[in-house]
Amino acid sequence: MESKSYTTGSRDNANRNLEGSKTLMASHFLRALFRIQQTSTTRSSFAGRRRRIRRAAYASMAYSAGTRRAWSRALLRKLRSRARLRFPRRLSRAARPQRGDTDQAQVLRKLVPGGPGMDYCKLLEETADYIRCLTTQVRLMQTVMDSISS
Amino acid sequence: MSSRRARSRQSTSSSRITDEQINDLVSKLQAVLPEAHIRGAERVSAAKVLQETCNYIRSLHREVDDLSERLTELLATTEASSAQAAIIRSLLM
């Protein structure tokens, strides 16, 4: 990403910190924010706009990981069905027991998208990636907040 | 891939997943938790890692909710709208 055309240092830093899937995440989220801002009227409720922004956050996470991950595939499915995004989820299927699998792992399954369908090893793997993506999204939202309010 | 093997062996009592593989996955998970740099290579029990993982994910979900709220507030102020339009456009380029 070319940063030479920008005049302020803070914008340069924001762009240098983004690369690869993070860039994808940022551009998706920012475009969604822009759309929400443009289409928000005096009639649209605060709660409605907040819901759309929250949904955009999870959507940009899911699109940045694409179909490469089980958690992002599950999240994409949920977003496309326009179901409510709720964590933790109510589990309808019992997971099969496996070595190391505990009640705590069941709790974790409710927190990670696609968790219920994962065996213990897959759950551990997917969770690490999900957390990496979540922290990136949170940092992105904080950066956007700082940019707008400065 | 260990996960593929795990799925096919799930129903048998003699699992082909070794403790070592699970420990490896648990320590990789520990590495993305906060304070991972403080703990370094110190071995924490899998139970503790799972518990902290759940707490951390919950706090991250709350942060997304909180930041969504604050962004909604920010974007609602009319004097911010022209400034933010310029900023968002520049961040996108």
Give me the strand/helix succession of chain B. HHHHH
Number of helices of chain A: 6
Q: How many helices of chain B in DSSP terms?
A: 5
Radius of gyration over C-alpha positions of chain A, nearest whole angstrom: 18 Å
Secondary-structure content class of chain B: mainly alpha
Give the helix proportion of chain B (percent range): over 70%
Summarize the structure.
The complex is a heterodimer of chains A (150) and B (93). Chain A has 6 helices and no strands. Chain A is an all-alpha fold.
Description of the structure:
Chain A is mainly α. Chain A is 65% helix and 0% strand. Chain A has six helices and no strands. The longest helix of chain A has 30 residues, at 120-149. The two termini of chain A are 23 Å apart. Mean pLDDT of chain B is 77; it is low at 8-14. Chain B has five helices and no strands. The two termini of chain B are 40 Å apart. Chain B is an all-alpha fold. Chain B: Pfam families: bHLH_ILI (PF23174). Chain B: Residues 6-60 form the BHLH domain. Chain B: This is BHLH domain-containing protein. Chain B: GO terms for molecular function: protein dimerization activity.
Key features?
heterodimer, A: about 150 residues, B: about 90 residues
Layout of secondary structure:
The complex is a heterodimer of chains A (150) and B (93).
Chain A (H helix, E strand, L loop, with lengths): L8 H8 L4 H19 L6 H20 L4 H11 L22 H9 L8 H30 L1
Helix pairs in contact in A: 2-3, 2-6, 3-4, 3-6
Chain B lengths: L1 H8 L9 H14 L3 H4 L6 H31 L1 H15 L1
Helix pairs in contact in B: 2-4
